Amino acid sequence: MKIIFIGNSHTYMNDMPQLLSEMVENVTSESCEVFMLAYSGRSLKWHMDEEIMSVPLDEIGGAHS
After folding, report:
1. What's the CA gap between 23 and 56, in Å, rounded?
2. Distance between CA 12 and CA 52 in Å, rounded?
3. Which of 2, 17, 36, 46 has the highest CB neighbour count under 10 A?
4. Model's pTM, two decimal places?
5. Where are the domains of the chain?
6. Angle at Cα 56 formed by Cα 61 and Cα 14, nearest 5°?
7. pLDDT tens digits, 41-57
8. Rounded distance, CA 34 to CA 61, Å?
9. How confident is the model at residue 60 (pLDDT cuts 50, 70, 90)?
């Protein structure tokens, strides 16, 4: 399973991607790969305008379902 986290300091300061990855692996025994795009003070709109829409998802972390 591959998951992309898009956020701000609330995401990276609390290490949400790693916490979710560990929970998924513990509950399902399935490997969970996470990738994080998080910058302090940035909104989802900023990510959409500046970052995500300009990079194909398969370049960020491969095929996602």
Report:
1. 27
2. 17
3. 17
4. 0.58
5. 2-56
6. 50
7. 777 777 777 765 556 65
8. 9
9. low
